[in-house]
Amino acid sequence: MAAATTATGSGRIPGYETTMITRAELSDEALKALQDKIKGIVESFGGAWVHEENWGKQKLAYPIEKEARGHYSFFVYTGKAGVVHEIERNLRIHEHVLRFLSVNLDKEFEVETYAKFRADQLAAQKRREDERQARREERASERRERFNDDYDHSEM
Questions:
Q1: How far is CA 82 from CA 13, 16, 34, 106, in A?
Q2: Which of 61, 88, 98, 101 is the most exposed place for a label (fewest CB within 10 A)?
Q3: How do the domains of the chain map onto residue ranges?
């Protein structure tokens, strides 16, 4: 990942993140085509595609346009003024996009700093999930032992 600088190289350009929810029935190819279109917009505004995450299909908190499930996508990018407006204009037009939210991360976005920050976040999330899974397994083991003890005593 290269540092995001303006064409003159003198200053940094802003960084943004966008989360979007598309209809669950949208095919993987169509989702990829939509993401490629967004990447093209970012590049046309002199920006760089920094990070992308596919959060998969999940149940929505409440129905949106009679949809109960949606496909979540998250991406981080840089770009000159107007890039967010153009991306949001395209997302508004697209019939399979249910919702989207764009956030300005920083006026002088540093890709390396963000990459380290995001890696730390994902590592902490993984560690928490591993700890939860270990606790689940421990509780299940205790339940099995109690059940076996109760079963053994009832045969006597």
A1: 12, 12, 19, 15
A2: 61
A3: 15-109, 110-156
Q: Tell me the CATH number for domain 15-109.
A: 3.30.70.60
pLDDT tops 50 at residue 2: no
80 backbone dihedrals φ, ψ, rounded to 5°: -75, 175
| pTM, rounded to two decimals | 0.72
Exposure class string for 102-132: b at 16+ Cβ within 10 A, else e: beeeeeebbbeebeeeeeeeeeeeeeeeeee
Q: Which of 89, 73, 76, 74 is nearest to 48 (CA)?
A: 76
Inform me whether the pLDDT recorded for 144 exceeds 60. Answer: yes
Calpha distance 104→135 (Å, rounded)? 38
Helical ranges in 45-110 per DSSP H: 83-93
Which tokens belong to 60?
A: 């929505």
Contact 57, 28 (CB under 8 A): no
Q: Token pair of 117, please?
A: 């920050």
CA distance 70 to 28: 13
Q: Please give the Cα distance from 64 to 55 (Å, whole number).
A: 18
